[in-house]
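Box 4.2: Ligand-aware structure prediction
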Amino acid sequence: MREHHKLLSPSSLPMLERCPCFESTPAGEAAERGTIQHSALEHLIKNFKLKPEKAEKASLKKFKLDSEEESQVRWAFRKVLELVEEHGLPVDDIRQERRVTVVNNKFDQLTYGYIDIDCRHILFDYKSGQQRDSEAQIMAYAAGVMQEGGIKNATAYILYGKDAYAQRYDFNIDQCMSRVEGIEKYVMNPDAKPLACEYCGWCKSHLTCPAVIKSMQIIGNTIDPKDVDGLLSIKPGKADAKTLGKMKILALIAGTWAKAVDAEARSRLMNGKKVVGWKGGYRKGKQFITDLNNAHQALVEDASYLSTEEFISCCSASVPKLAKAAQAALGVGEKKAREEIEGVLGDIVGRGAEIFYVTKEK
Ligand code: SF4
């Protein structure tokens, strides 16, 4: 059970709703890139308020975003202005990174957090990653805005930069409070038990959590611990169908555990810590051509080492990458951009050999 004085953060609510014992791991690289994108978006909005005519040209160089990240941030910036205008609100009222708190009817604080952007009764949360269920988080922010303003309704948008997609939610205060209070009650329940879910990989306890091991064991036939030695002593090539099925479950458990151990050892060695009997180091990365036009000029046109056909046969273009690159120009999400690219390219889109997969029978 969680300590009562420990407040739940809005961003952890979607995870706590699935497992009341979830505790997040420290931010990884993706989360750090997300934080930088948030700062860049904040910079664009600040710039807009100071010098609206120069906002679009505002330099984001100091944030060291790659071109994809920069186009995501610029899309989010334009979307905020467009939506604020659509709601008939003055852009001067746009505020950023404001702390809001949510209290229950006894005025006990349930949660507090910082809203990316808000403007009177509308609020925005920018996401740099994949679309996920973040409704509980945005409901907590909306509850904070409504409590603060003494209003009953709010509109919230989650801005998914990667997909150039704004998801709209219209909430009233009762809906939001019942969701936030429900999660708080679930988490604070003295009998709360861990429940394996899709967020286990992000949880501090995933290496040792009994719920994870248990849930893996109950995929299909549970392996009795006393059977494990027997299974390990049989060569896979000699196993009958039933035994091989059980061995596969054991392999799944061992594989998950092995991945977690490997990640931990890697991270310690990268950070200069000791793992007895192991060392880490950097190998040179693969070489690649940074400028295809110049390479073609040098190898085909100037030196005549290769024909254009030979040069092209060494290059490849990935459909998902082309779709990502075209997303901003088309102003659509990743899936739609991919359909557009496939439609325009028609027959010249090829496919690799079929991949054989193995999954658990239901
Ligand atoms: S690892 Fe355990 S505590 Fe963490 S989310 Fe999964 S089930 Fe819950």
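In the box above, the bound molecule is iron/sulfur cluster. The pocket of iron/sulfur cluster is lined by residues 19, 21-22, 194-197, 199-200, 203, 205-206, 209, 211-212 (CB under 6 Å).
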